[in-house]
Amino acid sequence: MSRKLAKQCGRRGEKVFSWVCLSPSIIGIMIFFILPFCMVIRYSLINNPIEEKYVGLENYKKIIDNEAFKTAVRNTRNFSMIAVPLAVVLSLGLAMLLNSKIPAKSVFRAFFLCPLMVPTASIVLIWQVMFHSQGTVNQLSEKFGYTPVDWLKDPKCHVVLITMFLWKNLGYNMILFMAALGNIPNDIMEVAELEGASAFYKFFRIKLRYLSPTIFFVTILSLINSFKIFREVYLLTGSYPFRDLYLIQHFMNNTFSKLDYQKLSTAAILFALAMIVIVGVLFLIERLYGKDVEE
């Protein structure tokens, strides 16, 4: 009995010690994340911070009908739907290329990782020089007989954003995929070789299975980074850019500058719900596709 009692006391002591160690983090999360989020929910359900009258879902109906909000959501959706898949597919292709036997692999790795070391302001300066109405790209296109385009005030502006996004993020994603490719068991690949499996079969039936957790992580990371493109767009075009460049972050930034807390809080809640749904769907796909590998 004394030994059992001592074990129980030891386990209780470990639990208490664990909670004591975790308490600073839990308190910090409560103060800086959960409490502010609850305040945002509260602001989205009242008419204004002064009267604090409960209006239910009225703020949500107003913002869904808001033209600026719909434009921002549409532009952000279109950009992310193109940029994120490209970032995942191209970085995986580069990783497989550099994982093969090609010369000067270290040079290529350094080339794709260089954008990670370039400050945002420098990136914006480079893109201004390249894609200005009188910039390098237009000067080169004129020599080949093409009409110059004001890239930042034209429907083709998404080409500039997608190119910038890929230039910045391909290198880091590529390194993650290279690490994942190195963790695929060699014996499975050797058995597939002996059985005469085609390259198509080995990629889709073996490699993709083991890469599914990394693909999931890179997709989420690229999705988050696609929202961070606002920094570059803001420095390039300001608070009110060309219509096709007006992103959800522009809407929130402009709403905050007007101190419209109800509209800002409502947009933030809708944005958070959309992200939860997207991440949930991606998580389910990853679990279904890579379940047998994890087991």
What does this structure look like?
- This protein is an all-alpha fold.
- The chain has one domain: MetI-like fold, CATH 1.10.3720.
- 77% of the residues lie in helices and 0% in strands.
- It has twelve helices and no strands.
- It has helices at 2-43, 58-64, 67-99, 105-113, 120-131, 136-143, 157-182, 186-194, 199-227, 230-237, 248-257, 261-294.
- α9 (199-227) runs antiparallel to α12 (261-294).
- The chain is flat, with a radius of gyration of 25 Å.
- The chain starts with a helix and ends with a helix.
Low-confidence stretches: none
Global morphology: flat
The overall strand count is 0
What is the C-level CATH assignment? Answer: Mainly Alpha
Oligomeric grouping of the chains: single chain
Helix/strand order: HHHHHHHHHHHH
Head-to-tail CA distance between termini: 40 Å
How large is the radius of gyration?
Answer: 25 Å
Strand content: under 5%
Mean pLDDT: 83
| Helix content, binned percent | over 70%
Task: Give the biggest sheet.
Answer: none
What do we call the CATH homologous superfamily?
Answer: MetI-like
Given helix and strand content, the structural type is mainly alpha
CATH architecture group name: Orthogonal Bundle
Count of helical stretches: 12
User: What count of domains describes the coordinates?
Assistant: 1
The CATH topology: MetI-like fold
